[in-house]
Structure of glutathione gamma-glutamylcysteinyltransferase:
Amino acid sequence: MKIKKLIAKVLLLGVGFIPSQLLAQTSLPLHENLISFNSSQGETLLIESNARQDYIPLSLQFETQENLAFCGVASIVMVLNALSIPAPKATEWVMYHRFTQDNVFDNPKTEAVITKETVSRQGMTLQELGGLLKSYPVDVEVYHGDEVSLEEFRQEIINNLKQANDFVLVNYLRSAIGQERGGHISPIAAYNKESDRFLILDVSRYKYPPVWVKAEDLWKGTNTIDSVSQKTRGFILVTSQ
Amino acid sequence: MKIKKLIAKVLLLGVGFIPSQLLAQTSLPLHENLISFNSSQGETLLIESNARQDYIPLSLQFETQENLAFCGVASIVMVLNALSIPAPKATEWVMYHRFTQDNVFDNPKTEAVITKETVSRQGMTLQELGGLLKSYPVDVEVYHGDEVSLEEFRQEIINNLKQANDFVLVNYLRSAIGQERGGHISPIAAYNKESDRFLILDVSRYKYPPVWVKAEDLWKGTNTIDSVSQKTRGFILVTSQ
Ligand SMILES: [Ca+2]
Ligand SMILES: [Ca+2]
Ligand SMILES: [Ca+2]
Ligand SMILES: [Ca+2]
């Protein structure tokens, strides 16, 4: 019987079909300082938020970063689609124009900032994130973590989250907010005043759900040094022109 | 000057880089019988819904069908991920397990239902949608449009939308609800009683936003003949085992 199973397995391998083992979907456990958006408490924080103008437009464009280095690329694509910026053709949809994590690089101006290959290897810095966004018709304001106080950080982002047609991307060190582990980029969708927390729509959906994070923890996460740029991380405000 | 531009253009072509023209992102215009979810009215309908248990889990897994024929595939992936069903490895994310529109076919049981190649050519019927779902550990109830009254249609779906850990996929004729044009599949995320409308999280995000559609229009859209199966379309309830 065991031998029959072995033969069956060999035959299966022989025809080139190796079924991938089905394993539990992550996500990694959440630190006690974070609140999952996918919980009744997480939902309540959104309902009671008075700075959630960006939530629906961003959630409609939510997508997963296509590889471990593409958090910035997925974040750019979500924001450009949410702003309905004129887009390249996407061959997979024939006649429809829309940004993808592939065609967003089909623009001569992006090459001058950073190539797709370099991003695939090392991700991108805050400056490169701003530079890629500027290769499309949007206004971009870049703030490094060491340039703003907690109060300025909170207020700039809240102002944006209260109005339509602009969005916030944040670049932070995950370990500063209790996550695994390095630098990361995602859009911010809402702010809850009572708990003083921001909602991050984390684009690494294979790894973590969106979380509500304390404003102070996120601010500290932006005031960390990116070893590639030797500058602090930070956040970017993106506005339709 | 014109010649210089022409030469520059030829050189650009010469090095093999043809920038795609940036064009307005769709979406197609919405019929007056539909309400876009991405509007203040659409948001209000969700806030006032008392059958929206499935909205957040589905919205967190929202993704775009990867080609014009993959509406059913994207819908299956959203639901399997929302239910956290054990998943194959996704090579792009190295060690993380999660369903994608590619790896959902990496299962010997799916081949017996329909191949990826056939789906790419002609999409899938309601029966095939149910069959693909059954190749994973979920309970599946298939309802054809001609088997249920409007009242039964409405009530079965509302019951599901009021509880967690199960989801609804609907297979309808777009033209019956005022859209372009053939058969389509997407998850339903919520119901609003006062307006008697369902919220469809349309997976063809390059084409239409999510819409609130009248229950009667959607029911009529399911009571239409799929030319491949020669049976009516319908809806499917998917439950975690
Ligand atoms: Ca400002
Ligand atoms: Ca905003
Ligand atoms: Ca039932
Ligand atoms: Ca449900």
